[in-house]
């Protein structure tokens, strides 16, 4: 039975380019409930109990510990994202952190020299709750030399929960770390840990020629307070890295979130995407969905139109209708004329029909035809006579040979 209810709802007041909080809350509740049901059913039907399902007493399904499954926001745009600045890795601050665990293991990848960053993390003014989480600080040159093999990169990947990277080297990590990082949710999150030069309160732009030098990143690092603030901001953000395509996925929550927490994160990420990452903002968004790792996508917003700018839409007028009708009539007339000049042969191929000729041409054609018929009749007659002569010659030769045989025997 097909439901007549709408898939998504739009706001009744204000701009249509905004989320309906009720729709986001309903989708979040249904998705989290479905993920939890899936995990409970999987534990019940498993032939071998896993660690999360080992309970001595017969507890209810509500008491069964569940996996912390990721929840994603799926973005679909009307046009490809092609701006290189928007395709760089970025982050959007969210109200409910995805990295709130106190036992979180963080790996910080920095520009050379790494010793300067290690000293910053070990500084007394650096927050202790961040120092305890940062288990590894590694420079870019050592990262390239130590983790060349796939097995070593996979081991690094499994040892830490979150990877932060200096924004000056973030684009070079794609080739260095490889697909094991960039096909997962552990893509490095950019952080700004370099000191920013300011004159009269304004940021000083660096010379492009200086940036292209091999040791361009060997500049001074920011103070421990600024570095700590940037790391804290990165841990409380959703990582964003768009592809040059029309679809992208951003992790916005986990299965242990409440529906309200997930809804608030979704709204914050959508606002950040439309403000910073997507060209033309809301007008370039085709659809927004939320989904789990192994669930179907649930729509929370669908565009009513498929164009980006109003200028892309051409209003159809009466003149356009006449022009279209005239083009159809011309095409039909040409097809009819082409059909009269052609006929279908028995083999299925089209052969052209002979064109009409006048009286003089008809008289010359008939005379030529009659002449050809006479030549053909004469050729046939000559052929028959030559055939009779050829048949008579072997008979005479045979008679002569017989007479010679008789004389020799006598």
From TrEMBL:
Swiss-Prot/TrEMBL keywords: Ribonucleoprotein, Ribosomal protein
Gene3D superfamilies per UniProt: 3.40.50.790
Keyword rRNA-binding: no
Region of interest (Disordered), residue spans: 1-22, 35-60, 200-219, 319-410
Keyword Hydrolase among record annotations: no
This protein's GO CC annotations: ribosome
InterPro entries: Ribosomal_uL1-like, Ribosomal_uL1/biogenesis, Ribosomal_uL1_3-a/b-sand
Low complexity bias locations: 1-15, 390-399
Compositional bias ranges of the Basic and acidic residues kind: 200-216, 319-349, 367-388
Name listed for the protein in its UniProt record: Ribosomal protein L1
């Amino acid at each position: 039975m097909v439901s007549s209810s709408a898939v998504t709802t739009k706001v009744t007041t204000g701009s249509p380019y905004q989320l309906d909080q009720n729709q986001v809350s309903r989708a979040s509740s249904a998705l989290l409930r479905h993920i939890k049901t899936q995990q409970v059913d999987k534990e019940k039907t498993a032939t071998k109990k896993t660690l999360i399902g080992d309970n001595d007493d017969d507890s209810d399904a509500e008491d069964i510990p569940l996996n912390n499954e990721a929840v994603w926001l799926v973005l679909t745009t009307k046009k490809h994202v092609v701006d290189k600045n928007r395709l760089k890795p970025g982050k959007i601050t969210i109200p409910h952190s995805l990295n709130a665990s106190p036992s979180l293991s963080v790996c910080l990848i920095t520009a050379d020299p790494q010793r300067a960053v290690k000293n910053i993390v070990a500084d007394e003014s650096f927050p202790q709750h961040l120092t305890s989480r940062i288990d590894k600080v590694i420079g870019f040159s050592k990262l390239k030399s130590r983790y060349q093999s796939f097995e070593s990169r996979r081991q690094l990947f499994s040892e830490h929960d979150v990877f932060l990277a200096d924004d000056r080297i973030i684009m070079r990590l794609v080739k260095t770390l490889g697909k094991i990082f960039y096909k997962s949710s552990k893509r490095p999150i950019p952080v700004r840990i370099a000191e920013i030069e300011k004159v009269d309160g304004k940021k000083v732009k660096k010379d492009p020629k200086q940036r292209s030098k091999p040791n361009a990143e060997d500049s001074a690092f920011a103070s421990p307070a600024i570095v700590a603030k940037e790391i804290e901001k990165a841990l409380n953000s959703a990582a964003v890295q768009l592809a040059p395509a029309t679809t992208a996925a951003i992790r916005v929550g986990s299965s242990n979130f409440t529906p309200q927490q997930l809804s608030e994160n979704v709204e914050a990420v959508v606002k950040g995407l439309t403000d910073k990452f997507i060209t033309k903002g809301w007008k370039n968004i085709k659809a927004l969905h939320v989904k789990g790792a192994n669930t179907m996508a649930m729509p929370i917003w669908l565009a009513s139109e498929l164009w980006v700018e109003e200028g892309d839409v051409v209003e159809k007028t009466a003149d356009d209708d006449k022009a279209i009708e005239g083009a159809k009539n011309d095409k039909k007339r040409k097809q009819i004329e082409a059909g009269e000049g052609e006929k279908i042969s028995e083999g299925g191929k089209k052969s052209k029909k002979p064109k009409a000729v006048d009286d003089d041409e008809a008289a010359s054609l008939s005379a030529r035809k009659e002449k050809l018929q006479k030549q053909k009749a004469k050729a046939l007659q000559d052929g028959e006579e030559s055939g009779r002569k050829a048949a008579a010659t072997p008979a005479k030769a045979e008679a002569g040979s017989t007479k010679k045989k008789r004389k020799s025997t006598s």
